[in-house]
Amino acid sequence: MNLKLLKGQHHVSAITANAKKNYQFYTKTLGLRLVKKSINQDDTSVYHLFYADERGNPGTDLTFFEIPHAGNTYKGTNSISLTSLRVNNDKALAYWKNRFEESGVDHDEISFQTGRAALGFRDFEGQRLMLVSDEKNEGVSGGKPWEKSPVPAEYGIIGLGPVTLTVARGEVTSKVLTDVLGFRETRSYPGHESGQPDIRVFETGEGGTGAEIHLEERNDLPQERPGRGSVHHVAFRVEDEKELRKWVDWITKTRLPNSGFVERYYFRSLYFREPNGILFELATDGPGFETDENFESLGQNLSLPPYFESQRESIEAKLKPLDTKD
């Protein structure tokens, strides 16, 4: 089958128990733009919030499902254990370290363990995050920070960086990455715990920070029990609907259980789980978030795909008001 290589990360979707605090942290502290305030299309009683660069370019989206009664996350294997965010250079990390200290954000020291400068930190629910420097990056280009962000543009977040998968059986996930999805293994670096295997790095498309998966195998942890502060799935970029339908055929041919083609309005998708249980999505680059809002007003109002519009009154009645116009 004539498949084009995946282009890199499309988005990462995580879980929050508090949409209001989530909005404050990701827009006011991290300086991302809320480009879409919508609903979980599989459960219309909860918000789906999309944070990104100035217009939600593919590869810049960090999204959250609000699940108000979500419990604590008990960290472990078979999970998406770290989401990283790109900044332009090493100097930006010094800015962020100072900003985190002033804002009381839980953070680590700047390190070079992954082969590039990085700064780990956690949000108010323990979401595991890391800023990575693009100073020496070659590969997928980043996005453009929103000009109205509270963070100066030269230090702004420009997209998603490497995503870390922590699994009990590394080989089965690596085979899916390489044999099914077409990633290539490029390098490795020491794991976080002594006695554990090195973390393996896989990349796709043009490579670089916006197209890497880091695979960590751990035999000393239980399986993760997800809750608030955990990641639901990671999505990879596909050019368009025509290419996505080829991927639907291919994934089905591999006998991996999958969703088939799914209409998400802002993009089209395919979902499947690899053998360790991690949920992958393939998503098209378009149509994009300006399909139903203009650039200036992105994220200010509740956006519903047309097939939910007739239910707007009942949907809004179930949602706790969330002011995103400030």
Automatic annotation (TrEMBL):
Stored SUPFAM superfamilies: Glyoxalase/Bleomycin resistance protein/Dihydroxybiphenyl dioxygenase
Q: Name one GO molecular function term.
A: dioxygenase activity
User: Sorted alphabetically, which InterPro entries does this protein's record hold?
Assistant: Extradiol_RC_dioxygenase, Glyas_Bleomycin-R_OHBP_Dase, Glyas_Fos-R_dOase_dom, VOC_core
Q: Where is the VOC domain?
A: 8-134, 159-285
Q: Which UniProt keywords apply?
A: Dioxygenase, Oxidoreductase
KW Oxidoreductase (keyword) present = yes
User: Would you tell me the protein name for this molecule?
Assistant: Ring-cleaving dioxygenase
Q: Which organism is it from?
A: Rossellomorea oryzaecorticis
